[in-house]
Amino acid sequence: MNKQHHVVPNSSGGWDVKKNGAERASLHTDLKSDAVDRGRQISINQGSELYIHGRNGQIQSRDSHGNDPYPPIG
Questions:
Q1: N or C: which terminus of the chain carries fewer CB neighbours within 10 A?
Q2: SS3 for the chain, per residue?
C-alpha cells in the first residue's frame, strides 16, 4: 500500500492530518490552510501522497511527494 496522509475535517471542529489507516490524528489545527501546510511538510518528509478533503469528506485535491509510478515524460 502507498503511504498516504489525509487532511480531513474533525467532527468537533477544525481539521486533522491523519496517516492512512490511523485512528488518531497526527496533527489538529483550527484552520484548513494550516492543516494543509503542515500536512504537506509531513508528506514531503515521508515521501507520501497527500489527499486534501473538503468539509463534506470528498477529496478536493492530491499532492504526490513519493515515487510517482507515472512520471511525466519530458
A1: C
A2: CCCEEEEEECCCCCEEEEECCCCCCCEEECCHHHHHHHHHHHHHHHCCEEEEECCCCCEEEEEECCCCCCCCCC
Expressed in angstroms, the distance from the first to the final Cα of the chain is 28
Side chain identity at 19, as an amino acid letter? Answer: K
Calpha distance 33→42 (Å, rounded) = 14
Residue 1: its pLDDT value, please?
Answer: 47
Bridge partners of 64, per DSSP, are 49
pTM, 2 dp: 0.84
Longest dimension (CA), the chain: 46
Cell numbers that stand for 20 in this block? 492512512
Q: Classify strands 59-64 and 27-29 as parallel, antiparallel or unpaired.
A: unpaired
